[in-house]
């Protein structure tokens, strides 16, 4: 179901009318105090060090730029910021332009507060993750967990882990199936959005729905054995909103790092808006 009309103050999707509740237009020359830097962390991609430290992140001319660079020591630098506020069921929208070329890993996503050290199970909603080589972006629903924590719920303790991806030696992630979509022109701004209700997640590109994940159909779980994935999503467990532009993408086997003539690309964001269902 595509978006019927989309104005700044009101969005209508099917029978649902959403009213603007939060708007970040990135005005001024500094990032507002409604946003914060994610703590600095380091990655290794194709044998090179890539640090996420926001030294190239800033606001100017009404645009957030989560930039990148390569320093004199051969270290790559990217960025990742998140909202201080948290959000639940509603409609999420951002107008943005992804970095040009290969070797970057930009994303617009949400995650439950806290860390795996304090809360060993975290749900994540990816409104998009972009992989440069095939120009496709991916929505995603992930459940992260620390496998040896005594705080894990029984459904994770008893889950077959043979289909998990080992992210770090002490972390695993379950990912629900999703459908990628082609981004035909990455040189212009596009609108990425998501409707999150207690029944489903629906993902949109420029107002057209390309993937929907229903939690139940005819009163039954859509996929047997997945009901525990959906608990936090149905209950509307709040999430912070993130914008990321990491340098290096290991899944991009052909070009995991930017070419020398393509260093310094940025994720550019014109706005982020969140809408609540009318009457809620």
Q: How does the helix and strand content classify structurally?
A: mainly beta
* Outline: globular
Q: Beta fraction of the residues?
A: over 45%
Helix content: under 10%
Q: What is the number of E strands?
A: 24
Write the element-wise H/E pattern from the N-terminal end onward: EEEEEEEEEEEEEEHEEEEEEEEHEE
Radius of gyration: 19 Å
Helical segment count: 2
Q: Report the major sheet.
A: 12 strands, mixed
Spans where pLDDT lies below 50 across 5 or more residues: none
Mean pLDDT: 83
Q: Tell me the span between the first and last alpha carbons.
A: 22 Å
Observed structural traits:
280 residues, mainly beta, 10-stranded antiparallel beta sheet, 2 helices, 50% strand, globular
